[in-house]
Protein: DUF6212 domain-containing protein
Amino acid sequence: MTVVATHETFPVHRAVREVSLLKEPVLIVIGLNRHEVPGPLVEAVKTVWFEGVDDGLALFSDETGERFEIGELPLMLLAVIVSPEASGDKDRFLRWLQQRGAAQLPPVIGWGRGGEVEAVSSLIGLVAEGVRAGARRLVLSNKELRTLRSLNDELQNRFASLEAFLNRHGLQPLDLVFSNEPTENPLNPNVLASASPEGISQILPVASSGVSGIAVHVEKPASRHDIKLRAQLVALEELRIIDTWQIASGDLTGGWNIFGLSKSTAGLRRTLEFRLLVEEADDDVPLLSMGGLQPVEMFQVRDAATGSPLLKNSLALQVWAGIPGVTLPSHANYIPAQSQQVTTEEGFRDVPIAAGVLEHASLANSDEVSFEFEAIMPLPAERAIGCHPPAEGITIGHLPAACPPQVLRMSAKAYIDNNRAADIDFAIVVARDLERAKALFGEERQPAAGEAFSGWKTVTYGDTAHLSAFAGEKLDIWQNVYFATRMAEPGGNDFAWAKFANFRAVVSG
Structure:
């Protein structure tokens, strides 16, 4: 233990008089009797009489003669009025101010017999100068405030422009906040096959705020594509199901599969648990990759029914944060949530375009392109639309009033369904009418308020492109969705079975 001694005293409670000297304008009187100072002057401003200095403390008395001492510098010294015979006391007071660190000494006004009027005039002049200085400071403050407001407006405009640019080009941040990479396991355990009918569970080792997707690594997909699986994300504190995914085994691909949330998580911190089960008993289930050995039992992969660990490993998984489905890594397979939670809370919702809406897809530019067959083919069973490109030019499809209000992003998957097809360009647009959509497909201008354009993406057979069209500003109206294809190289459009699938909208609120 260390003890520090000091000669200084630190009063716990300041006297009311000392506090008033720190908060009010003060007039100091030196060498004058109380009856020599006019009563109206004492009533107009806080007035004290200087009595001397004792052990570093200044001694004063008030208009009643009661003495007190202060150790701190008065903050608003108006002036010092002094009798000609008290110059020694005046010098002593000014030295005390300097010792206490006064940046500027107060004006000294002589108060002699017959010179009272001049002294009062000097005081009035000081007050007038103080008023003028205050007015100048107010004007300068107003100018600085206007400048700051202008700079703030400019900064806000720059942020808005940057945000719109990021929206147009799909560059909003989607951060990988946790990754447990797959490792080789000589036992090659299939945890889905060995778990109870309730499936497996895995606690996520991250904070719940901002989570938008959980990626699971599949080492070997199932040979059957029709096995039904169900995944859930659960908040353990209240056993609340945050999102649900109903998928077939064919939806899972080898490598990373991102289970995207319908809305980024927010609110109080919760312990998140990812659950996965096979709804139909079958030995031919996907083989999930495992991470390294996990010494903390809480984070080992568990049987969802008993809660007991199946292995001393955790699943190979990743946790993503940001707007759901934005700027996905090209190597990942994105699986959106099917839960239809409708809330009025702030955040983002990932809304699928219903299969019934896809049935209303039609050819929008029939005056420009023609085919001997239907160029636009709704495929509700596949949740997809076929869009056959012409040899030259573009084919534009139309989904009327399919884009909901307050949209941030309209997205779709694009792929080619014939191995003999040449490369095809795909794009989607959100706009009010066809003419506006054509201008965006032709890249003649930037999207206006509420509009969105994904840009053109070239797709080769066997690849899948994720198209994302971001709206720079949100509108409270339903708008049309337009989708288009063209040959990457003009000509050779035989077998060009281009398809758009999984139309989805991320909306605010």
Summary: Residues 88 and 303 are 92 Å apart (CA to CA). Residues 1-13, 340-346 have pLDDT under 50 and may be disordered.
